[in-house]
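3.2 Worked example (two chains)
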Amino acid sequence: MKSYVVAALLGLFASIAAFIYFDESLVIRIISGVIFLVSAVVIYLRYAPSEDEQHTSGDKPMADPVKKPEPTYETGKSRPEPRQEAPDSTGFELDEENLEPASEPQVAPEHETPSDYAPDENPDFDDPKEEFDALTHSVLGVLKEQLMAHTVGLYWINQERGQIIIGEFVTESSNYTTARRLALGTDFISNVGVSGEPAMIAQLTVASELDVAPYYVSREGIQSIIGVPMFYQGEPIAVISADSKAPDAFGSETVGTITRVSKVIGSLLKSYNQKFDLKTDANLLHVLDGMESYIESHMDTYGIASAITRAVMDSLDWDYIAVLLNQRAKRIWTAVKSQTKSASLPYVNEGSIVNMERSILGKGVEAYNGGVLPAPKSREYRFAEGETIESRGELLVLPLYSQREVLGMIVVEYREKGQYGERDLGILRRIGTLASRHLEVAVLSELTSKYLLIDEDTQMPSRTYVLQRLDEEFERIASLDGRGVFFQVALDNGDDIREKHGEVAIETIMTKVAGAVRALARPFDIAGRFGGTSFCMFLVESNAEEAFLRGEKLRKQITAQTADDEGLSYAYTVSIAGCVVTPGMKREEVQRIARQVLDKAVEDGGNCVKVV
């Protein structure tokens, strides 16, 4: 306000000076001219724009700021969010027309690139263990880079079984062991895992390296090592270890770093356990449903034993599986089903008699809820004296009980120790519970059908009659140096047919197949229903070539048949397996071989004939 008053006074003085200049004497006019010039100079210096302001605004006149009216809004409508503009700290307005393009982004040097151990942005893991291993490997990789270590590894400690289980590791060494388990002893990892206290060695000697770091198969040249235990529910369960080829490479701050990493892995472990339990339960339910469906179409002791074997193969780790049956009438135990992971690893033969009184499996019969047994020692055995089974691991055994008696036993064996625990035993119990219920019914059914000589549905000789006749024929072959071929004929995809067309359709097909088998058999051949959806034949005085031709003829006749379901026709096929019988062979042995050949034919797609 004061500046405007001063300007007005100066302007007034200048006007008076100009007026006097034209009316008074020369002196007065000189004085008034000086006052005019001084007033003009003062006004110019005070109100003229600066050089910076001329550069900014140019020749544009300055306008008073105009306040924009506040916009109005209708009732019930949301007020729009005001646009946020970046503040300009310099006070200048951006000249959008003269903006220069942004420079290229700078690329970090190679040693500053993100870690190669970082997981994918959207990893897709179907298996919780695979996910846990991948994330743990990534964490250990980052830890190795931070510590500049030679090897960083996670080692699980199992004090009950005296083992170190090697988990994920990141190493620069080519001498790292390929073993999955190490013995818990006096080495550095064992001491940290058992004591539950972190430890560090700043300087290693060459002679002590392998004793300290058992995960190397030869000297690696490491000179310092550190280990920190990892806890779960208050107990040490693992050790995170790092080593280096430099002496004194780790300090007390390294313990804190590894401890924080162990907490991260512990959180991953909790998540993994939850996911693993859910996945195991879901998989077991699926296995039990499949087992139930299989038993419905194979309702005999061998079919139930096969269902048990399939369920165990899908649920547990195994190298050998055997299902034993207690035949109380004969007071013997027999191996009904036997399965090995490799053909070069023999186990017990199907049909073999097991001496349970002297076998280590006798201890399993006494344990109602099952248990884990160590593999037999030099003078002990599982099934029979003199057995040659290449395993020094452990056996998971579960007796199968009815309300009155023990029906049988499930034996699952792994060639390495420390494989089975309470979780595995719980899975086997659920399989055994389902199997026991059906096995009791099957035993009673077979006991009842033992006195029936004719199958009511197909009017073919029953299994009991066929087995009696086979025993007689085997005695004839042994006495007269004869020969023959035992055939087993089974319907392909019986479960699918039952699901689509019902149980009545199965019996209708069985009647038609029985007619074809009966037509092919000669008067002195043996033929009958063998149980479920299978038949058997014994071709007297036949060789392999002749048997194959007759089996192929039977297969083509059945393939040409059709069945009807409410006016819709559908075809069906059979698989035929044969075993040549020579003097000295036992009936149980021949049945086992024929069954194995039949299983192989089914695996190959069915609708075929195989003779061995």
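3.2.1 Second chain
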Amino acid sequence: MRWTVVILTVMMCTMVIPTSSSADDHDDFTLIEGIGPTFITLKCDTESCYGFSLDISESNDSVFFDGFSWSGNLTQGLGYKITKAPGATGSATVSILTSDPDFVYEKDDVDGYIGHGSEFNTMPVRESCIDRRCEKEQIPIGKMTGWLSHGGDSDSWKIAHNGSAWIKNILSEAPMLVEIWHENEMGEMWKSEDKHSTYNGVFHEIGSLTAVAGENESSWVKIISIEQDRRDSVYLAEIFTSDATQDAPANNTHNAVRSPASSQDFVIRGISHSHEDVDSILVPAGGRVSYSIIPNITSEENYSVSVHEHLVGGTITTDLGNLSGMTSSLAMSLEIKFKLSGLGLWSARVVLDSLSTDFDGLKVSDGLSFNGDAPDRLPYSGENGSHWPNVVLASDGVDYNPNIFRLQGDVFEEDKIDVFLISVANDNGTLIRGESEYHGAKIQIQRLSENSFSIMNSTNGSQLFLPKGLHAIRVEQSSDYGGHYSFLMSLNEPVDEGPPIYLDLSSKATPYYLFAGFFLLAPSLLVIVMIRGEIASRILGRDKGRAIDQATLDEIRKELARRGAAADLGEALSNFTSKGLISSRTRFIIEQDIQNLSNANLTLTNPLCEVGVWLDDSEGGIVSFGMHATADWKLACLRLSFPNGPRSEVEVLRDDLVHHEDEIMLSDIKEGDSIFFQIRLTPSPKSFEIEVSGRVKGENVAVVPRKSIVWE
């Protein structure tokens, strides 16, 4: 950053105003706010400043004045004005070197010896925002001036002790050399840096310098005049000194509280103490917050910036790789790390913006508002549920709070699922239902187990009883919708009717029980008749062929190898007595050359078909689906669902089948025929469920196994 000098533009005049200290002329002078060694000089459009002169109201302790510049020790207000002679062209301004009234300056001559520290040549430590998040962009820099009394004169200033100092720049009338020195408690001294000044057209200048003093060490700046035949000259240094205790850590511990996600614009700033120093700053950026980081490095050193997310569950990500983007829905805060290749001051502007309205305006447990995007999954076992939005539905001894409320938020391409926790504190539980007001996103009310976050029961918004404890609401984007959603959630308190009174009238209903029992058992008897052969086979022990084991498959492969042709598969299977789905599965295993069988499988047999799902490759995400029809099926269709997490991408490893997202068209299947194919799921889900639907004998039917297949 460059030194900013006071610049005043001279207005065009038609007459020369003489130098005067009378009261009548004081209003024409501009007052200098400063103290100590001071230098003021004209700066003109033309090199000679012909036709312009500088007038001083009061001399104070004047050292030099030639009509174009003035230097001296300022003890009280000093006024100046610029006089323009008739016929002069162009304009003139002034440049000023002076100390801040509340800062240190050279009162008595400061010698160039390192180690003579006193209150007269020691820079004061100023309270400031450094190595952390800051609300103000300006750093408190002190302006200090001194004298280079003759050619070869030098002044040494103690600028840091057990801390660090940043010198914005040093300006001088005369050419100079600046050195940075260090001294330890043993009196040992060493020089770490030196720089020669360059002329900028007005002053001789040296840019940004940084000095770091370790434990029990001091840092000094030594300013040396290198022009031998030189009158007394003024120099100015802009210095900031900080305390070592303010150095930012290299790594921040995991944030235990989810950060607010409101829109913010602030600055982070720090000083690099060495080439190995890493400064880490934690900023409040919860789930789905867009961020932009704009670095501002004042030194000439190379630098690197890395950005990391702190996630629920205690995980800290690796570098995200970009200085702008959007945090994930599980983010709790954002950690920004700065590293310079050397000493220097760094800063960055951080802009945060959250467009998410998830849980907007509602209250969570402990009366705190939840900020940011709702996560896209339930907490895992051992995770802290307080990092999820948690609505308190009912409490003991108070009315329901409230009886009706709106659940609102946003779903979009990067955020398709929102999960909210609901806390029921009433011993009697509650009845809850949800109705969509926009008919876009889908809602699922989930009853969770008492000691974990496992799903025990769920509905698609219809009324569900939730006992005392913690439960969940899952909102998912519809395939053709994205944007704002709103659900009207209504609560009803279970009616406590007191202890029941029973009257035994069962004897009067005996004929009805007999009649109803016969008709209730009739369908079961019909099913028994339809599968009588299978029942008899199991009773007589003739059902061993239904099992698929590794030994059986190895025997079949050996038989095929002996025959030398896979075309003999049907004959090789002649000793394998199973039929239907199991036989088709065995043939599929041999044809696809699946070497190892998984224990993860799901099968279902009913009078209309046999359905099965097998996990073939857990690492590759490949499963097999098979169906053997025991009746004619029309427009058969397979649908996969993922109740315990984000939806996986479905890829059918068979070209002749049509599918869309999680639905696969099986077309028509005649009685006695089988269909088998493989599916790849990316990423591998925690578990999934299947549903087969179609038309049989003109009726719509669906086959839904009660269990789900769990990934190994």
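3.3 Remarks
The two ends are 59 Å apart (CA to CA).
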